[in-house]
Amino acid sequence: MRRLSATLLRSFLQGLILISPIAVTAYLIIRVFDSVDSMIPYNLVPFMPRGIGVLVVVTLVTLIGYLGTRFFIGRWLFDSFAFVLQHTPGVKHLYSSLRDIITSFVGEKKKFNKPVWVCVSQSPETWRIGFMTQKDMTHFGMDDKVAVYMPHAYAISGWVILTDAINVKPVKDMTAAQAMKFAVSGGITTAEDEN
Fold first, then answer.
1. Are residues 100 and 10 in the same domain?
2. From residue 66, how far is each of 39, 71, 73, 75, 165 by CA, in Å?
3. How does pLDDT run across 149-180, given as a tens digit for each residue?
4. SS3 per residue for 61-108
5. What pLDDT band is residue 194 in, cutting at 50, 70 and 90?
């Protein structure tokens, strides 16, 4: 009975870990759309369909993205707002962390774009896939070391290791996206699966 209880509890906690990111993301998206939708005065415009908030949010985000990347004044406004956020006590840590995480995966300054194999054990020889994030660690007093981010399989987490540069070799015949998919899937996907 104790074994069954422990198994059920462990399964419940693992289920929470798996469902939580999806549930929180869905909740936040629904809240944003509902908030925008509630601002629309449907009683004044009776012919307007409910749920137009989704269209408003998508249009607004697209417009902001377009103006922020195509016109000098738009870029200047966003850079100025980002500067204020980066220098506001308390807010700066949250903002800079979120910005760094998001730009690591998407955008012009993607950080996880150099997939590498890392020898993590010599006997027996064991290799793991990761992404080179720093080629030079001398500013931390660690000459001849490199920083490699190694994602966990079936999770949105990972760790950063510092290893000798000689233990790292570039991944060939695999894009950064394929390498991330390979790592996160536990190695069960291959480049052929993409075709």
1. yes
2. 24, 8, 12, 10, 41
3. 888 776 667 777 778 888 888 888 778 778 87
4. HHHHHHHHHHCHHHHHHHHHHHHHHHCCCCHHHHHHHHHHHHHHHCCC
5. low
Instruction: Note if the pTM is more than 0.90.
Output: no
What residues does 134 pair with on adjacent strands?
147
Return the closest-CA partner of residue 101 out of 151, 163, 141, 136. 151
CA distance 152 to 134: 19
Residue-number span of the structural domain to which 133 is assigned: 115-194
What does the alpha-carbon distance between residue 95 and residue 89 come to, in Å, rounded to a whole number?
A: 11
State residue 116 phi and psi, 5-degree precision: -140, 155
State whether 25 and 101 are in the same domain.
Answer: yes
Q: What distance in Å separates the CA atoms of residue 117 and residue 172, rounded to the nearest whole number?
A: 10
- Please say which residue of 105, 133, 156 terminates a domain: 105
Q: Find residue 158's DSSP bridge partners.
A: 151
- How far apart are alpha carbons 60 and 135 in whole angstroms? 39
Tokens of 34: 């509902």
Taking 80 as the threshold, does the pLDDT of residue 124 lie above it? yes
* Dihedral over Cα of 106, 107, 111, 115: its sign: positive
